[in-house]
């Protein structure tokens, strides 16, 4: 399994869709800032920004999942048109 920010971005979007939540909903339920969630969703996390374990923990608690669920690789052909 490759732990990439692209896989995480996709996993987060999928979980948000499954739970029918938007950025504001996730922020309210986790206590994370809307900016943090937006940066994660828009792949704007740079190498000098630390990805906090607490952030991951809050997201996993909200979505009732494991970190691996958020980092799963997309199936072959995902996103190709």
From TrEMBL:
Domain of life: Bacteria
Gene3D superfamilies reported for this sequence: lambda repressor-like DNA-binding domains (1.10.260.40)
Ranges of residues in domain HTH cro/C1-type: 12-70
SMART domains: HTH_XRE
InterPro entries xrefs: Cro/C1-type_HTH (IPR001387), Lambda_DNA-bd_dom_sf (IPR010982)
SUPFAM superfamilies xrefs: lambda repressor-like DNA-binding domains
Protein name, per record: HTH cro/C1-type domain-containing protein
Organism (species): Ligilactobacillus pabuli
């Amino acid at each position: 399994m490759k732990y990439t920010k692209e896989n995480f971005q996709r996993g987060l979007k999928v979980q948000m869709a499954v739970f029918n939540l938007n950025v504001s909903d996730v922020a309210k339920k986790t206590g994370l800032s809307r900016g943090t969630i937006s940066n994660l969703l828009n792949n704007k996390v740079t190498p000098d920004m630390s990805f906090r374990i607490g952030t991951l923990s809050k997201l996993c608690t909200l979505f009732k999942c494991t970190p691996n669920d958020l980092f799963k690789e997309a199936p072959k052909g995902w996103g190709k048109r």
